């Protein structure tokens, strides 16, 4: 999907959004930050909410040993 649909860039928002909405004004947002990649849903409505770098910092600070880390599937060598 990422190789076909054109990305949307929004001033002040990190990363990019997939141009096809999930529903109404909700789009997938993809961010590369400090060598890691993040994805989530964001609301592109005029009063909507998108992910920020401070959101990522807050989520990373709250992570602990039981927080899962996603990786490529299948794992290398499988």
Task: Provide an overview of this structure.
This protein has one helix spanning 53-62; strands spanning 7-8, 16-18, 26-33, 36-43. A hairpin with a 7-residue loop joins strand 2 and strand 3 (26-33). It has a 4-stranded antiparallel β-sheet with strand order 1-2-3-4, with no helix packed on it. It has a domain at 7-58. It has 1 helix and 4 strands; from the N terminus they run E-E-E-E-H. The mean pLDDT is 87. The protein is of the alpha+beta class and 78 residues long.
Secondary-structure-derived class: alpha+beta
Beta-strand residue percentage: 25-35%
Q: Look at the structure and give the mean pLDDT.
A: 87
Count of extended strands: 4
Principal-axis shape equals globular
Distance N terminus to C terminus?
24 Å
* Spans where pLDDT lies below 50 across 5 or more residues: none
Question: What about the largest sheet?
Answer: 4 strands, antiparallel
Query: SSE order, as H and E?
Result: EEEEH
Radius of gyration (Å): 14 Å
Strand order of the largest sheet: 1-2-3-4
Helical content class: 10-25%
Number of helices: 1
Question: What oligomeric assembly is this protein in?
Answer: single chain
Walk me through the topology:
Layout: E1 7-8, E2 16-18, E3 26-33, E4 36-43, H1 53-62
Antiparallel strand pairs: 1-2, 2-3, 3-4
